[in-house]
Amino acid sequence: MSEASSGLNLDPIGEDFILSRKGDDGVTAKIVLTAADILDLTRSALALREKGLAERQPASGEVEAVLATPVESIAVHREMLGDNLLLTLVSPDGNRLAFALPSAVAADLVERFSGVLATQAAAPARQ
Predict the structure, then answer these.
(1) Residue 96 contacts residue 73 (beta carbons within 8 Å)
(2) Taking the CB of residue 122, how many other CB atoms lie within 10 A of it?
(3) pTM for the whole thing?
(4) Which end of the chain has less Cβ packing within 10 Å, N or C?
(5) Residue 1: what pLDDT?
(6) CA 46, CA 12: separation in Å to the nearest integer?
């Protein structure tokens, strides 16, 4: 994977991954992570991202800080071993994020989308 401005780098090595960071002193620290570790790290990073966004909320509470990722395509499937609907969002760079929606949540989502789209269609176009 590409190196971020923080000096962090995550590279595959066999079935595992190496997370490395070059410090200001030039010393590189490395840690071996399994695929399960990467999933746990991803969940933790998402929770920390939400916490960081919440700390940037305006005092008025009228608007909400959001980190939005563009979506290029979606996939919708019925879960094979359950009653959930699987909604996968794919970003332009190919990253995928899947959600397991219970039927009631999926129905609510459809209703909300319909309402927003109807409102959007009735609104005058912005120039």
Answers:
(1) no
(2) 7
(3) 0.60
(4) C
(5) 45
(6) 21
